[in-house]
Amino acid sequence: MTNVVEEIKDRLAIEDLVGQYVQLKKIGRSFKGLCPFHTEKTPSFIVSPERGIAYCFGCNRGGDIFRFIQEMEGVDFSDALKLLAEKTGVKLEQHRFQQPKVSGDEREQLIQLYEKVTRFYESQLWSTEKGSKVLEYLRRRGLTDESIKAWRIGFSPDSYEETYQHLLKEGFTKKMLVSGGLAMTPETTVEKIYDRFRGRLMFPIFDTLGRVVAFGGRALAKEQEPKYLNSPETPVYHKSSILYGFYQSKPGLKHLEEVVIVEGYMDVIASFQEGVTNVVAPCGTALAARQIRLLKPFVKSLALCFDTDMAGQEAARRAYELAQEFEVGVKTVVLPEGKDPAEFALNHKGELAAVMKQAVPYADHFYKRLLETFGTADLSAKKAILNDFLPFFSQLKSAVEKDEYVRRLAHDLDLKEVQIYDEIKNFKLPVNHPARFHSAVGTGEDPVQSRKRSAEELLLGFLLEFPRVGKLFAPKIAEEFFSEALKPIYKAISQQYNDHGFESVQDIMEALPHELKENAALLSLYVAEKYGEVSEEVVEKELAALASHVQKKRMDGLRRDLHKQLTTAEKEGNKDLSHDLLKQLNETHAM
């Protein structure tokens, strides 16, 4: 395994991989860019070719190429290995991925389960009499056979047991079918189960690697409720972290730097048929912060193509407010006749791509719609416009944009600009307004705080980053200075100094054991970024100060521990032990 990992690293430079997701600028021996993991204005994301790592000191996320892909794509190490092996042309051992009927941990079993059931649903669509009727329905809706096959659309038979009985024969257990969301049980046990998606049109939902991880099932009969039934959350599916069509859209997103966000599975597929290959949809829920973070490394703007009804417009407004925290542009696409993309594509062949390109800035669209809705004829209309626009206005980040809308409001409402500014000054968001929560918590997660490094970590970082001075200090530093987590790194550094006397960071990194390289590289990089280019005299002073601090901290901790033991021994009347502990305590004060 180690040989495969190292071969992949030899073939793929960290800066080349990260550059596919982040715009990087060369700064000295490293590269800098805006962090893809959290929103920031000043770059704190560093890519170090000589250390082979990419790391953000703002949110403390990143690592080598494997850790970076795990963070960016939301996959585990095994999946990152497969993805990077494919990118670099490295052949993995075939036997590692040849699975028996059901094997591996829960995540791997679920992936196998969804692949098996997807094939079953496809066969039901293409090879059964009832499926042929569903196939005709899809064709009437405008989908081609090529699209149906490409998106792996299927049909779940209208039976309480046909699907699950097929999967039991494939080696899956009832418990796995229930935990995977394919079957349900009316009891607390899983002895009696029934198919969740019976009699539905099945849309597989793909993860960032193109694997099926969930399903959206559309009702085919009028009396079926709900119209769309989606998979529950599982270890491999979190609906707020996945976008339908993202895997298929990635090439288009990178090329166009814009994403079109629609509401439904059919909208995505119909758009692709019409040549719009940068389109995604949330999976049965409102757009979430994690989904925007997933898109941000690929795009500079979002184009919202939601329904024109009240629910669709409210969803667009929430999406706009949420996007402000990520500093991406937001546009809106208004389709003629209030159609959704699938309907428009069906009735206006070859026109959808051109209409999508006519997206306008969302703020302009929202402002225009307010004027059309309320008019400007009387005072009550003007107040209504201000009441609706000011919460929206409060989310604007650009001072230039704010000034522009103040001028527009003053002109269109026949008011003075100073009156508008007075209204803005006195305006307070309602307590339950969504924008209040967006501004308070940003992306819906804890505020980013940079973790301070301990003196132990800094000491190791200096030993790594400045080997010419570090090798003189290493023998003077005791192994006991370091915690159990850091001791292996110190011992490896000392050993390398003794054996080779390295002169460069890169030489030390290459010689360290594989399992220590990433943590060692992060410590070295932290020191490099914090201290920059400094003289050996400064390095020597810092090392001396850090060593003294770490030693004092260690001795203070030892004294506290001895004091506790001494107190306990005295309470228990153990004179011999008390005498021995007191002697040890006096010795620490003499050091």
Description:
The protein is α+β, with helices and mostly antiparallel strands. 53% of the residues lie in helices and 11% in strands. It has 27 helices and 17 strands. A 6-stranded mixed beta sheet has the order 12-14-13-15-16-17, with helices on both faces. The chain has a 5-stranded antiparallel beta sheet with strand order 1-2-3-4-5, sandwiched between helices. A 4-stranded antiparallel beta sheet has the order 6-9-10-11, with helices on one face. Helix 5 packs across helix 6 (129-140) and helix 21 (455-465) packs across helix 22 (467-473). The protein is globular, with a radius of gyration of 30 Å. The two termini are 47 Å apart.
Strand order of the largest sheet: 12-14-13-15-16-17
Overall structural class, as computed from helix and strand content, comes to: alpha+beta
| C-alpha geometry | globular
Distance between the termini: 47 Å
| Average residue-wise pLDDT | 85
What are the segments in which pLDDT stays under 50 over at least 5 consecutive residues? 94-103, 434-448
The radius of gyration over CA amounts to 30 Å
> Sheet with the most strands?
6 strands, mixed
Q: How large is the count of helical segments?
A: 27
Helix content: 40-55%
